[in-house]
Input
Amino acid sequence: MIAVACWVTTDGHTKSFVGPQGAVGQPHWDLYLGSSPLNAMDHLLAHSLDQAVERIREWWRVPSRIALEPLRPDGIDDLRALARARAKIRTIAALARAEGRPVGDALRFALDPPDPQLAPDNMRRRIDETAARVDVERLVLNFPRPRGRAASGTVVLLSRLDEGLETKTSRHPWLVALVRPHEAGVLEVQRLIGVNARHRWDVAPWLWDATVAADEETRWGIRDLPVARLGFQDRDRVLAEVSNGSRDPDRAARTLLLLDADRVEEALEAAGVACTDRVRSILSGAATGRDGLHIDQWARFARNIVRKSAPWRFARIVDGTGRKRAHAVAHRLVTLPGQRHLRTASLVLQASAQGPVLAIEDTATNTCVPEALWCRPVDLDLIRFGLE
Output
């Protein structure tokens, strides 16, 4: 939505200190892009009609289609860096065990004494029991590592410590793992709003809990996936073969190969995920109006998000929403970048009678679906490309 107001000064000054200083009686054009000035994505205050018209044309421009490069053997440098980091972690852990040293010390991951205000005495036993279940090697192996390095400041929520206790606040004590500068890891207790966290591993305890085992179906969300055929060899032939299959593993394999080829719309369709018109226009890089302001950035970001996802897992996220509330509940995945207002455009999943729908919703909520439930597990890509 574009709103335009024209007003005339009587004292030679505008109502905004950032606006132009026009002459008395000169019209001023006040433009903003958005549903209200409070959440405007852009704003212009000018006394030149030509400038106002040019800004409107800019807001409604139609950009060219955005496309990413298909995944190639020389385009998996980040995965190779991750594979090297994981191999190093396993070597360090194995040497520590052989020498009788604690793996946590060797991998520089330790438990900080909890703050008594965050963890009172009646919770200390639960903290100790939860910390004792942490498999440090497994935790460090699975810790988020863009480009092979654990980003300083990344916080992973492992377990809520007051689970089952009656509380009257949205913030709860969590045992978390985080990385401090120079990749030193620590376990500590923090009081956080769990539903706002991207990295919540209470929904995927096999990533850190030594008492929890998980098979491929649990980790990847699909059983009998033909991973040995999903590398770089004979991709066209394999894609043709799995496209004729009707089993879930065939559909998931087709989805993966299409994502690798940057055919994201076809990949979503293969996984049974519908898209709204707004999502299609952004994925294709042909959005106009409000979305057109950010289309270059949004199109690349959205396509990358879909390419790193596991769309066959989307149905489980929206499962249970119910047909009566099919479009009343949105499961936010991620906020699109470059926005500074309160209500932000976000990629969300909605339920429908036909299955999950990928949509964009303008929302002020910070609640999100943990990445462990919708992103593609890194070990799946490492195995299919022969890196592990």
Notes: The radius of gyration is 25 Å. The CA atoms of residues 36 and 225 lie 48 Å apart. Residues 6-21, 321-328 have pLDDT under 50 and may be disordered. Residues 2-59 form one domain.
